Amino acid sequence: MATFAELSTKAKMPILGLGTWKSSPNKVKEAVKVAIDAGYRHIDCAYIYQNENEVGEAIQEKIQEKVVKREDLFIVSKLWCTFFERKLVKEACRKTLKDLKLDYLDVYLIHWPQGFQAGKDLFPKDDKGNNLISKETFLDAWEVMEELVDEGLVKALGVSNFNHFQIEKILNKPGLKYKPVTNQVECHPYLTLEKLIQYCHSKGITVTAYSLLGSPDRPWAKPENPSLLEDPKIKEIAARHKKSPAQVLIRFHIQRNVVVIPKSVTPERILENFQVFDFKLSDEEMATLLSFNRNWRICVPADQANLPDYPYNADY
Ligand SMILES: NC(=O)c1ccc[n+]([C@@H]2O[C@H](COP(=O)([O-])OP(=O)(O)OC[C@H]3O[C@@H](n4cnc5c(N)ncnc54)[C@H](OP(=O)(O)O)[C@@H]3O)[C@@H](O)[C@H]2O)c1
Fold first, then answer.
1. Tally of CA atoms within 13 A in the half-sphere of 221 that contains its CB
2. Which is deepest, 8, 35, 224, 233, by most CB within 10 Å?
3. Host H or E run for residue 192
4. Is residue 149 within 6 Å of ligand 1 at its C-beta?
5. Name one GO biological process term (predicted).
6. Distances in Å between the alpha carbon of 130 and those of 15, 46, 50, 301?
7. pLDDT tens-place string over residues 140-190
8. How far is residue 245's CA from residue 223's CA, in Å, rounded to a whole number?
9. Is 241 labelled a binding residue?
10. Which of 131, 94, 97 is nearest to 112 (CA)?
């Protein structure tokens, strides 16, 4: 069974969860069911993944089969950034809860720090292709999200893709009621984020690592891009432990006390990715993996670099 990261609320967040971005609606239901049967208790969801309804069906079936109770599960979802207006924050959360068929979320994250103009378009642009941003900021959204906690719809709040200045803005917000419990960010041996992780941990904020296998199914992948799963040095470490490169990439985070959410819709891989509690990387192997850092990011919306709340202009 997975171990946990303790949140500042004292809740226990399973250190290993299932990612669901790019998991198509016709595959994600089976994936979540396989994962729950295998022992996963943490599922990472988001409105923008457009599959929360099917994730919810899987969760419901497993609850009805009495494989798990709701309180055994740890369900995370995310507020998309076209919903930063007061009324929309609440509507978005209720829509996610309805789709997931849940009464509450364990953590609700702000998906991305930059607010975008409200409307049907999730990436709104003008005729010239310029991004259209909202006047509401993540601080405005945070205030409404705090009400979701008070209303019992959400147990805790978090952020995603925030740099440390942006987290600091939340922590220093006058009248702050609830601190973020986690910052979900891209992290792997090519992007090791020492400073950001140290900062978050020093503030009692856990870090959750995404695209930790290198997100090989990302739509913009190019053959010339580096591949974590094919890296000969990572393969060598894996062979030494009779494990797969994916298992090493997952274990790497667990040993840094970083929560990790590998995505798969393949039953054998979902099982494989959970078999990471029966081996340990040595201090030397951890140092070797950290030495592969090249600050290489997979998820970079480069056309947003000039926007006020773009997170990657800061050092960390
Ligand atoms: N907050 C954010 O902005 C943000 C951004 C990106 C991701 N995320 C979250 O983080 C999760 C993980 O990130 P990700 O989806 O980008 O990528 P990832 O987990 O790094 O990689 C997923 C890919 O790896 C393959 N895979 C999984 N296990 C494998 C194994 N054992 N061996 C070989 N290949 C394997 C999957 O294939 P199959 O599925 O075909 O098996 C899929 O193609 C997402 O699903 C999402 O929940 C959040």
1. 11
2. 35
3. none
4. no
5. lipid metabolic process
6. 39, 25, 24, 13
7. 999 999 999 999 999 999 999 999 999 999 999 999 999 999 999 999 999
8. 19
9. no
10. 131
